[in-house]
Amino acid sequence: QVQLVESGGGLVQAGGSLRLSCAASGRTFSTYTMGWFRQAPGKEREFVARINWSGSNTNYADSVKGRFTISRDNAKNTVYLQMNSLKPEDTAVYYCAAGTAYWGKGTLVTVSS
Known about the structure:
The protein is mainly beta. It is built from no helices and eleven strands.
């Protein structure tokens, strides 16, 4: 069982930055591929970024490539999403996931123009 709690969301102006954190409980955190997803109002949830168990491999959605960076600290059971050059279209609830089985409740990011 893994419990995930996201934090770091908020209101930011276009061009600004935010860093999201996802704290995980459970001793098996380091074995999971961790992902960030987002859901904008009226839209389906979409993939944002993914990082493998060791942090050696990352993948990004084309829409965030070059602006967002995913990282993890297995000693702290935490995964991060550094978001730079934010755009209004990045406005969404951001969720972290451990594998495909465990999800957090999300944190809201609002980017004003």
